[in-house]
Amino acid sequence: QVQLVESGGGLVQPGGSLRLSCSASGSIFDIYFMGWYRQAPGKEREFVARITGDRTDYVDSVKGRFSISRDNAKNTVYLQMNSLNPEDTAVYYCNADVTTTARVRTWYWGQGTQVTVSS
């Protein structure tokens, strides 16, 4: 079994910054990519960012403001979020494409962390 545990959410004023972290643990053989999705109230879950090796991808609405990075030795992914605005308010979910030690490849999800941008 694999677990993803997120941290770093909270309340921040518009224009502020937050850094989310997500650590994967368990029966991990390999992680192909790690990334973040978010879900705002009344909306569908949307892709935010992903890191695959040296490649990073972002949804257009966060380009230039968010930065994703990964520490492979720690199986941890980070999302640095700058210039936050109220439209960024959502529950942020970590996800990872993991091959387990049983050689089964599956997407895993964290439990989510709340990010609220408000004055």
Question: Any overview of this molecule?
Answer:
With about 120 residues, the chain is mostly beta strands. Helices cover about 0% and strands about 60% of the residues. The protein is built from no helices and 11 strands. Strands 2, 4, 5, 6, 9, 10 and 11 form a 7-stranded mixed beta sheet that branches. A 4-stranded antiparallel beta sheet has the order 1-3-8-7, with no helix packed on it. A hairpin with a 6-residue loop joins strand 4 and strand 5. The mean pLDDT is about 95.
Give me the Rg, rounded. Answer: 14 Å
Order of helices and strands: EEEEEEEEEEE
Proportion of strand residues: over 45%
Q: Could you name the ranges where pLDDT drops below 50 across 5 or more consecutive residues? A: none
End-to-end separation in angstroms reads: 40 Å
Structural class determined from secondary elements: mainly beta
Number of separate helices? 0
Overall shape = elongated
Mean pLDDT value: 97
The total strand number stands at: 11
- Helical content (DSSP H or I, runs of 4+): under 10%
The biggest beta sheet is recorded as: 7 strands, mixed
How does the SSE layout of this entry go?
Elements: E1 2-7, E2 10-12, E3 18-26, E4 28-39, E5 46-52, E6 55-58, E7 66-71, E8 76-81, E9 90-100, E10 105-109, E11 113-117
Parallel strand pairs: 2-11
Antiparallel strand pairs: 1-3, 3-8, 4-5, 4-9, 5-6, 7-8, 9-10, 9-11
